[in-house]
Amino acid sequence: VESDSQRYGDEFLAGFGKTARDGLHLKAAAVRETCDVVISNVVVIDAVQGIRKVSIGIREGRICSIGRAGNPDTLDGVDVVVGTGTSIVSGEGLIATAGAVDTHVHLLSPRIMEASLASGVTTVIGQEFGPVWGVGVNSPWALRHAFNAFDAWPVNIGFLGRGSSSHSAPLVEALAEGGASGFKVHEDMGAHTRALDTALRVAEEHDVQVALHSDGLNECLSVEDTLRVLEGRTIHAFHIEGCGGGHVPNVLKMAGVPNVIGSSTNPTLPFGRDAVAEHYGMIVSVHDLKTDLPGDAAMARDRIRAGTMGAEDVLHDLGAIGITSSDAQGMGRAGETVRRTFAMAGKMKAEFGAPDEHDNERVLRYMAKLTINPAIAHGLSHEVGSIEVGKLADIVLWRPEYFGAKPQLVLKSGFPAYGVVGDPNAATDTCEPLVLGPQFGAHGATPAEISVAFVAQAALDQGNDTMPTRRRRVAVRGTRGIGPADLRLNSRTGAVDVDQRTGLVTLDGEPVRSQPADSVSLNRLYFL
Predict the structure, then answer these.
(1) How far apart (Å, rounded) are the C-alpha atoms in residues 12 and 40?
(2) What is d(CA 168, CA 62) in angstroms, rounded to the nearest whole number?
(3) How far is CA 156 from CA 116, 153, 308, 480, in A?
(4) Which of 194, 354, 374, 510 lies most in the core, judged by the most C-beta atoms within 10 Å?
(5) Distances from the Cα of 515 to the Cαs of 309, 310, 395, 519, in angstroms?
C-alpha cells in the first residue's frame, strides 16, 4: 500500500461505540454539503490512483472526493466530508477497484448480464440483441428496442454498428438515428479494403472507434495489407491473440503498431494445457462451420496455434497488448475476464519470476487492461474506467481472499447494484447460503437511473433518435488519433513477427514464448 489517508487511533469507523457519530466524525450538515455515500477506509487498486488506503465520497452518483473521511469541525486534514445524513459503506478490510469495462460482448442472451455483473463488469460495449447474426447493430428500430431492454440492467451500455459495408449510409444511420457508439468490422461479414476504409472514414468524421476482427482467410487482405489500409488511422484490433480470429497465422503482428490498440479475449487466457483441444469445437460452433466439409474443418484447425497462444500471455506481461475482454458467447465467457486476466498475471509471475520489492507494477498493469484502457480505446474514459473525482462511482468491492474471482459488492453510480446476498428470511444479512445476486440497484426503475447509454455525438446533436431509454445519453469522444502510447501502463511498441513455419513469435527479434500451465489461480478453489 503506497499511502494511507487515515491517522491511526483516530480513524473514521461506523458501528457501536465507534467514531462515526454526530459531534465526532459526522458533520451536522445537509447532504448537499457533505456526500450521499462514503466508502470508508478501503484499499484502492486503480491504474490511475495506484494502490492506496482511502475513503471515497460519492455525491449524486459521482465520485466527489478521495482521501481522509470525517468531520472538518473536529478533525484536521479531512478530504471527504461525511455528514449526519451520509450513508456509509464500510470498506475496512476490502479492496476497491473501478468497475471493469468489457468492450467485446456478443449479446446473444440477456442472461450474459448476470455473469458480467457477478464478475465486476459495469460497462458493456455490445454487438447484438439476441441470437441473431449481428456483429454490429445498425437498424435504428433494433437499437431502440435493444437500448430499452437494457433499462432492466444496472450496467452502462454502448452498441457497435456493423461496419462491414461498402457504403457509408448504414453506418451514419446507425450513429445518428440509432445511437450506436462505434463500429465493428468482422471477417464473417466482410473485412475487405472497401469496408474497412469506409468504416474508418465515417469514424474519423464522427469521432467513434472501429473494432476490427480481421480477415482470417487472408482472401482479401493479409496482415500487412490491413495495416496499409489503415494509413495511420486508429483502430481497436480485436483478437490480437493466439486463436480467436483474424489473420492466420500472424495476426499478432498488429501488436506493437503505434496506431493499433490491441486487445485479446479470455478463451486463451492464460495459456493452459487444454487450450488447443478446447478451441476446435468452439470455433466450429460460433462461426457456423460444417465439420463434414474438409475446407471448413481445415479453416478451424488453422486458427488454433499453440505458439501464438503462449506468446499472447508474454505480450500482455510486457504491455504490448493493452486490453482484455470476453468475446462473450462468441467464444469467450462473460463472467471470466477479470479472473482470467489476474490468473494470467499469476502465471507470468510464476513462470518469469517476481520483482525484488513488490508486485504493484504488474498488478496495476493488469488492472489497467480491464478498466481504464478499454475506456480510453472507446472514448468512455471521461465517465468510467478509474476511481477519479468527477467520474461515475462504478466501484467494485472485494474481500481480499476472493479478489478477482467473486466481488463482495458492486456499486453502480454509488448505489448497491449487485453483490453477496444471504438467506432472505435470516436474522442477519450474512446467514448462509450466500450467493451473488441483484441488490436494490438492479430492481424497478433504478437500473436505468444509475446507468448511462454511450452514443455517438451525432445522436446527441440531431436529437431525433427514438430511443425510449430513461438512462442519460453520453457521447463518446477522443477515439481518433490515439494508440498504445495513450494507454496506461501498457504502451510497449515494437516489431512483432510470427514464423509461419514454426509459429515462433518474436518481439524486436527476441523470442516470445511461454509454457502451457497445468493449473492456474482463481480457478477450482472458487468455482466447482
Answers:
(1) 7
(2) 37
(3) 12, 9, 33, 22
(4) 374
(5) 9, 6, 35, 12
CA separation for the pair 1, 70 (Å, rounded): 21
Query: C-alpha grid cell for residue 500?
Result: 509461419
Q: What is the mean pLDDT of the chain?
A: 94
Catalytic residues: 287
The DSSP string of 394-409 is -EEEE-GGGTTT--SE
What are the angstrom distances between the C-alpha of 170 and each of 163, 236, 459?
8, 20, 14
Cell of 416: 448497491
41-64 residues labelled b (16+ CB within 10 A) or e (exposed):
bbbbbbbbbebbbbbbbbbebbbb
Better pLDDT: 66 or 281: 66
d(CA 380, CA 428): 39
- Stretch 210-234: mean pLDDT, rounded? 95
In the numeric block, which cell numbers belong to residue 415? 448505489
**CB 38 within 8 Å of CB 89:** yes
| pLDDT tens digits, one per residue of 34-61 | 999 999 999 999 999 999 999 999 999 9
Domains defined along the chain, listed by start: 3-93 (2.30.40.10), 98-381+484-512 (3.20.20.140)
In this prediction, residue 306 has a pLDDT band, given cuts at 50, 70 and 90, of confident
Nearest-10 Cα torsion for 318, 319, 325, 326:
0
Grid cell digits, residue 433: 447460503
- Rounded CA-CA distance 146/151 in Å is 9
How far is the C-alpha of 387 from the C-alpha of 394, rounded, in Å?
A: 8
Residue 18, C-beta contacts closer than 8 angstroms, at least 6 positions apart: none
462 in Cβ contact with 484 (< 8 Å): no
For 168-206, write each residue's pLDDT tens digit. 999 999 999 999 999 999 998 999 999 999 999 999 999
Q: Sign of the CA dihedral 163, 167, 168, 170?
A: negative
pLDDT value for 304: 66
